[in-house]
Prior knowledge:
Layout (H helix, E strand, L loop, with lengths): L5 H11 L2 E3 L11 E3 L1 H20 L4 E4 L8 H6 L1 H4 L1 E6 L6 E3 H9 L1 H5 L3 H10 L16 E4 L3 E3 L9 E3 L5 H5 L2 H8 L5 E10 L14 E11 L4 H18 L7 E5 L11 E9 L2 E10 L3 H10 L5 E2 L7 E2 L2 E8 H12 E5 L5 E5 L10 E5 L4 H17 L4 E3 L5 H11 L3 E5 L15 E6 L5 E5 L3 H6 L3
Parallel strand pairs: 3-9, 19-20, 19-21
Antiparallel strand pairs: 1-2, 4-5, 4-6, 7-8, 9-10, 10-16, 11-12, 12-13, 13-16, 14-15, 17-18, 21-22, 22-23
Helix pairs in contact: 2-12, 5-7
The structure holds glycyl-adenosine-5'-phosphate (GAP).
Amino acid sequence: MPAQTLDQLVSLCKRRGFIFPGSEIYGGLANTWDYGPLGAELKNRVKREWWKTFIHKRTDMFGFDSAIFMNPKVWEASGHVKSFNDPLVDCKECKERFRGDKLLEEKLGVEAVVVLKLEQIEPMLKAEKIKCPACGKCNWTEAKQFNMMFKTPQGITNDSSNDIYLRPETAQGIFVNFKSVLDTVRPRLPFGIGQIGKAFRNEITPGNFTFRTREFEQMEIEYFTKPDDAPKAFDDWKNDVWNWFTGLGINKKNLRVREHDKEELAFYSAKTIDIEYSFPWGWGELFGLANRKDYDLSQHEIFSGKEMKYTDPNDPSKKFIPYVIEPSFGCDRTVLTFLIEAYCEEELENGEVRIVMKLDPRLAPVDIAILPLSKKENLIAKALEIHRMILDKTDLVTDFDVTGSIGKRYRRQDEIGTPKAITVDFGTLGEDGKQGEKDTVTIRDRDTLKQDRIEACKLIERLKTNQ
Ligand code: GAP
């Protein structure tokens, strides 16, 4: 069963080294999070699986890595300068600031709130008697638009004409390079470009652990098609992304597709859906998919004066701006979802409760633990020998652990989601008096708790076939 409260997960993440509060020794910095040794490994594995599935295993996709700093005109062309806004309300009593729509969403649900106009937010807060989360009063200012882009000076002069933005999405880095990819790689439609990278948004109300933060990573794809082929490409991407999430362990009961209705739909979008996950606090957006038509490339053609058209290779007289289907993942949100889904408390036969992270083995930060049964010198020496052999002959990530009782060490490996643990015991050394156990080890399975004894010389083959 996935984590029922966020606190269970936050506490495990800190205790075991997945995710720590940012800048903690200085009292922290609100809503910033640092990935510890296990979290960094997990996040890298999520990115690796994404890149493998959506870039390497396809013949129509190319990888990219664009700069975070971009010419400010990019954000004028994309519409972010004018309209990348959230509705901000102030509490007149305590002066705290909130996102008006989010305050309403908790009571009325997202569908009822996305259709509201800016001027309807304050009257609705009043009508629904929504109290300030900080002081408990209900006395709001009118909602005003708040632009979420971070601005920063570039270079050594303090002249505001040198101000640039931290990118609020990775997508624009792909659009502005569309022509360069076209001219160098010479792909035919349909084809796509994907990239993974940091994005920054000055969110009014970040929160729910890493769900909404001001600095986060995205994994975005821009998939270019002929206009008529866009609806089919949209459906194909919806299925591919759904299968990626469920194939890596997200139960489909915890996922749903929500289509934006015409009030919520951005003016340039022909169709948008969110894939939502049932988070401990309710349904929330995990992933977004949009048919953005030719909006972005057309805007960049107008603002840059550079042609963004594709020439039909079968008929060079036909030139057009392709449509784009945009599958957009939040990397941190995806990691959080895998963590919530994997969290499991299980009662064992002896009545003890174990916490186990049932992460897909492709995502688990440690592939295999090597555990000498005790601290006896010759046991440790044998276990180190086996550890070395695994490091030399495989690419597996290992954890060699000698601290504490074997029971405690198994619990720790369960909590970090290690799929297999190898125990080196007195049988391995031929010292337990049992026939045929010399040079054997046991392999314990995280989920079934079954322990198999196998010959150490067959270990590598077994690990490579992942049995
Ligand atoms: N280029 C389209 C785009 O950026 P979006 O729906 O604003 O679309 C895409 O963002 C994904 O990025 C979301 O589905 C979510 O997973 C993630 N995301 C957006 N804002 C975020 C934030 N403040 N913190 C963490 N993840 C965020």
